[in-house]
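seq/struct pair 1
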Amino acid sequence: MTPIHLRRTKIVATIGPACANPKTMLELVKAGMDVARLNFSHADHETHEKSLKMVRDINKKHNTNIAILQDLQGPKIRIGDLKEPFKIKSGDVITLRSDLTEQTADALPIQYKSIARDVKVGEMVLMDDGNVSGRIVETNGTNRVKIKIEYGEVIKSRKGVNLPETQISEPTLTEKDFRDFEFAIKHNVEWLALSFVRSADDIKLLKELIRLKNGTSKIIAKIEKPEALANIDEIVAAADGIMVARGDLGVEIPMEEVPGWQKRIIKKANSMAKPVILATQVMESMINNPRPTRAEANDVANALVDGADAVMLSGETSVGKYPVMVVSAMDKILRSVEKEDEDIYYRNMEIIPEDADALATSVINTACQLSKETNAKAIIGMTQSGYTAFQLSRCRPKSFIFAFTNNRPILNTLNLLWGVRAFFYNGFVSTDDTIQDVHEILKERDLVQPGDVMVNTASMPLHEHGLTNMIKISRVRNKGEVRE
């Protein structure tokens, strides 16, 4: 049985060639991976299915709840395949053509059919995360555009292209996304990330598709477009979770605005009990180096202080030289901040009066306050839908959150939430017996000890699985000890 990491902030690790084997995958879990990300911008369904099976096999064999996050590519614009890196300099005029699959003597391929119709002369074009910049100087309106290079040295195969001043006509869900969506339905993927979200309607469409297919995936909205920032309140409200995708966002908007938006988005997600992931270039130097830079360590720490539920690794684990070491390093940084910084706890405790579930939320907030006043080791949430776990996590209690449910599909889902560890339990009888049962389960896992104070929350009567309406404070007893 793999030990449970009593770390509150979660680690999302992207699976790729560097770690997609059973031995390394298990080492990632032992090092602290909580969520495995499958990036559908790369690899095929067969490859992703093998990775998913490895994670699910580890969960079954080692009694873990590692969640799967499937990341849809979305309308990502990329340079096509080049014979070799194409050298450029300031002042060069290059031609991009959407009807090419390979480089020719006078043009480079671009994988976006509508580019010549969408762009206007004078608009900015950025490539390779902004390492190459230029302006549109000509478009034929069908398949060819010309760009005058402002700066940059080389254009490489399949590097991303950003058009920050252009209204993109392609829908958020592409033909490829629809095919990849079927993978999520087939494999009951816990979290499905939607790229380049522009409005809440994008989220609502995907939710409806999931409903029509009787799927269970929850949706994470990736914030990486200026349009998303303009509609951020509606997007956060519609989504189940949020990802601050700083890679494309940092190219689409001025770089100096990214830190402020990062903080605002995280705060909004926290207030609505929506888990939020901070992503991109978090510990990128560890793709090639065995230690992070001091700046990267601070970036991870600041993500926690800002209120992120999880921090995500991309190339660091998927193609890097040290996938296990980078997860271990992140784990150490997060643990250190959680131990030393008291200001990260007991937040977002405001009640929204017009909320339909305000009564249950008030009970949950009270439970968190009681855990602070009694120095409780843990808060136990009995939950059917996962609602209690989401709301307890929102309040950021210093006590650990142990969620018990008889709803197996949500066990892995809850593993993304800050502070939450979930357990299967199907013995709901009476309140006192159930509390004693779950205490024994936690003692067996060496997560609590006799004498520890516990704040227990549930819905009464237990068998009806309603909203939380009960709080009981108790101590963990020795086996056979008479109830007080």
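seq/struct pair 2
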Amino acid sequence: MNTFDFGIVGLGVMGRNLLLNMADQHHAVAGLDLDADKVHSLTQEADSEHRIKATTEVKEFVELIKQPRAIMILVPAGKAVDAVIGNLLPHLDKGDIIIDGGNTYFTDTDRRFNELSVKGIHFFGMGISGGEKGARFGPSLMPGGNKEAYERLRPIFESIAAKVNGEPCVEYLGNGSAGNYVKMAHNGIEYGIMQLISEVYDIMKRGYKMDDSTIQKVFEEWNHTELESYLIEITGQILKKKDTDGQNLINMISDWAKSKGTGKWTSQNAMDLEVPLPTVDAAVAMRDMSKSKPERIQAASKLIWNSEQTNTDVPKAIEELKGALHFSILITYAQGLALLTKASTEYKYELNLETIAKIWRGGCIIRSVVLEDFRQAYAKNRDLKNILLDDTIASTLIENQSNIRNTVQFSVQKGIPIAGLMNSLAYFDAYRSEKLPTNLIQALRDYFGAHTYERTDTNGTFHTEWND
């Protein structure tokens, strides 16, 4: 048998769409799922020109794929991945490749990478971004694993990935869990940008009392400016959607937001690496706050702030909001890229930030025109510690300083929660501060805990008897 180019385990939405994408690109592909209905539906959906075979039998599935075998797992992260690996292993040979295409925490990928290396099996963790449509017609792919083994995967992945200026949005990123780590940082940035967009929407609606139609048109128009991006584009589409009664659907959607944990992972690991991500942290915190709906209903009638009425110059307000959002989105990307810079050293990934910016330009959820600016910045200076130090990005931030400051000031006066916008500005102000008040924190720690401190006028560590 052994005539199929690639295999996918898990024929849910993502698995099925990736298989069909590969088949469109003239690859012979095999699918495995224990659910006979999913196997049948894939067979029904396949074109007559597609070379697809799906089965519920592990042994049959493995024997379909030519050696060295390339098999992707698309099942929920955690024990299910280990279970699939356990089922596949008895039928695999040395040199075969297993790819985990789910949102797996990077330390789990490292464990599997090491365990399977001993058995002669190559293990890849690969981030996939673009959702259901992206998987079907062109996702952004973030693979990490053995560099030599990647050559077996490269032609297939390059054929199915999104393209920008003819360049596929996939490239080998690094050893071990590099791919899953980059996807985790991607999702943290995604959390931050969605929070920022929702805050600007709230300022328009509650702060400036704009009607739904005006807000929708603003987001639609912004997608033809420097804010052009997938998330801005779909915001305009969402705000246009009508419910069955003809009213705007957005007004009927609960504000109790859910999450799958990837944003939290980003924040937690950033704290481990001592990399500040205040905008991402705020986004995670506000999703948690959204779950306190019963308490918020109570608090709304008790914790009252009566703001002053203001006369609004709507065109000016919209221009300021655009600048504030642009500023904050740049800051959010900067935080995520700074995390990748530190993680690359800490975990020996040897990440190329230009490559990451390049493959994020298309297919993925955080694709945006600004990613080309980032790519060019890293092309000029691969050792850039923070994208804010690039002259072009710094200039854009400086141009929008008054917009973010005026927006924050207005929102605070109105009592509108803008944790994302405020934390973006705070990050900017902290990063550009040659001196921070943390000297007092050092003194306080030394006073109550004899934790010592450093001085500015000489080397060494010191302790003072403060209450002597």
